[in-house]
Write the structure tokens for this entry.
Amino acid sequence: MEGDEEFMKYRSPLVSRYASKEMAFNFSDKKKFTTWRKLWILLAKAEKELGLPITDAQIQEMETHAEDIDFTMAAEQERKLRHDVMAHVHTFAHCCPSAAPIIHLGATSCYVGDNTDLIMLRDGFDILLPKLARVIDRLAEFADKYKDLPTLGFTHYQPAQLTTVGKRACLWLQDLAMDMRNLQRARDDLRFRGVKGTTGTQASFLQLFQGDHDKVEELDRKVTEMAGFRKAYLVTGQTYSRKVDVDCLSSLASLGSTVHKICTDIRLLANLKEIEEPFEKEQIGSSAMPYKRNPMRAERCCSLARHLVALMADPLQTASVQWLERTLDDSANRRISLPESFLTADIVLSTLQNITEGLVVYPKVIERHIRHELPFMATENIIMAMVQAGGNRQDCHEKIRVLSQEAAAVVKQEGGDNDLLARVQRDPYFTPILGQLDALLDPSTFIGRAPQQVTRFLSEEIRPLLEPFKSKMDVRIELEL
């Protein structure tokens, strides 16, 4: 049928199903090739300012046609020339006949290719950072709201001492805060490749400026500044060092591991029915089991975060095999690994924001789980109370040990409730402290300084981190599942 052509070939789910329009555009052909043209314009402007015979009319002509790319012509040229940059030089020259002689003057392909990649990386981080800030903000609100709510802590996924729901969220927040600093640093560390020539020596530009080293330095500085970068790499081969890609993608892979941990925790808690992700009124959890409420968003995050972590292998291996001044075996790999890392991080953060904006807590379920385990945890408190009432610690310890074993047998072998408290109440030995039992089993006395830790952590570490993003906090996420 007419119009079905797009369904006859593979489409990346990252774009067709998941990623935001802004991130999809950031790595689009339109953005890429218009940026190439803008870089050719910047080069011409800087070369003209430094005395090369380039006219205002030529620059005006290039600026007029910066956006109107004939992609069909470019594809035909690339099929003929087998060179993507020269194909676009020819396509640009076709609509800028007077500027044709000075387009790409003195440059190598990596002038447009690598510098555009660096712009896309920078702009990609600028899309991700506010999204990460919003996730942190929503989770900080959640942590503050539930900082006092006792809950079972788990080590080895076995019940341990109590913590609070808010304190546990701060463990997630601390990792996200590290990711925020990593992404910001990777973004701020980015430099421009600048104007370096075929093997990074600037020989072609030195020839253009007849041996004037100062003008070549000034050309590099001017183009770097006009492109919005504070610095260029002082030395490059034909390309900027591919360790830059390692640096950028490692920060995203690290974010992926954080998100996977958080969403796994949410999935575990959903199984316990203590916490659930948001669930739409008409959403179906299972085609076969109508009662189910599957944590689909958290599962999506884990699934995509796994891909984000796996992508880290690409830039590491690419950087390790860049022979001498460069090889071209980086190109095809980077066309996939760079955009996919940012597209994946983008949807993972959007989904996590949606989750954190609607997390549902079930205090009664949490309380029931505490009630099942707290008598075991309270044994030390009971022993100390008995000692204060005049008892012998060793005698008391043995009494509690025997009763605990009996109660544990009821739980594990008979499937009954934890009846340790009832056993203590029935044993005449513990008569001196029966009036204290309720106080000794108050969950709020088992959470240590968790609420105070939450308050201090949010105040000292999270709020200052979010300050630069205050104006971008209002965007809420509605997901198509």
